Amino acid sequence: MAKSVDEFNKKRLRSSNITVVISIALVLFLLGLMGLILINAQKYSDYIKEQLVVNAYFDENYDAKDSVKIAKLEEETFKKIQTLAPVKKATYISRSMAAKEAKKSMGIDSDALFEENIFPSSIEVALKPEYVDPAKIDEAIKVIKSVPGIIDVKNDSTLMVDVYNNLSRILKWIFGFSILFLVLAVVLINNSIRLKIFSKRFIIKTMQLVGAKRRFILKPFIIEAVVLGAIGSLIGLLALFGVWYYFTNQIGSAFVQDNQQYVWLVLLVLGVGIFITVLSTIIATWRFLKSNVDDLYYS
């Protein structure tokens, strides 16, 4: 009889541990998924911002005999612009390249309509994402325009402002959902741990009544919480990266190439899983340590 009761208690304990681990894994999977989306959304936002360029133009009026001197000046100007703080990438566009681009955009193959050197040479500048901010774009343009040799800088400011505002709005929504999932993770994991500790409330009170110190009683529960939190986190991470690997293979893009961000995400998910599990265990166990014996029947 005692053996069957002992086996029943072991099965119930095993079932309780499995339930807690699955709960932790599912919650952290969703939390990690929001983290991946947030990381990639930020990188994609930066990529979109870098596609918004400004064009710095050289003087198109100069004497042919000064062509060598002008070419040297344009080269020096190009190198100078590359070193400016707001500049992410700069591309030099010669007069002939500008003419070819114009012909291509107008669908013209002949040189009969205009001379090849009718367009001025220029520098196409991709700004760093932080300088696409509407509050800083004018400052960046002034810096570029101050470089000797540049006579005009043009950009589609309206398009830049619209893209910036839309991207910022999307990122705020994603960040908000990430915070919501973090709160849900805390609540759901805490509830799972409380149910597990609740099933052991009589054992906790019995140990206390026979003289065991609170630290001694807490220790095995904390160790178990660390193990369950780690196992649940690892299962959630394996499922997360398995789904993400399949998704990126299907669309043919790996998105973020910076592995360091993935490492930080893994550490964050693992840390959150263990921390919430341990904290919930301490709070739930402490509650029964402070309660009276009669309260155990009505908790």
From TrEMBL:
Its membrane topology? Multi-pass membrane protein
Q: Which UniProt keywords apply?
A: Cell cycle, Cell division, Cell inner membrane, Cell membrane, Membrane, Transmembrane, Transmembrane helix
**Gene Ontology biological process terms in this record:** cell division
List each copy of the FtsX extracellular domain by range: 54-153
Q: Which segments cross the bilayer?
A: 20-39, 170-193, 221-247, 262-289
Q: Name one GO cellular component term.
A: plasma membrane
Q: What InterPro entries does UniProt report for this protein, alphabetically?
A: ABC3_permease_C, FtsX, FtsX_ECD
Give all residue intervals belonging to the ABC3 transporter permease C-terminal domain. Answer: 176-292
Q: Does the keyword Transmembrane apply?
A: yes
Localization per record? Cell inner membrane; Cell membrane
Superkingdom, taxonomy of origin:
Bacteria
Question: Pfam families attached here?
Answer: FtsX, FtsX_ECD
Q: Which family does it belong to?
A: Belongs to the ABC-4 integral membrane protein family. FtsX subfamily.
Provide the function of this protein: Required for cell division and gliding motility.
This protein is called: Cell division protein FtsX
Query: Which species is this UniProt entry from?
Result: Chryseobacterium phosphatilyticum
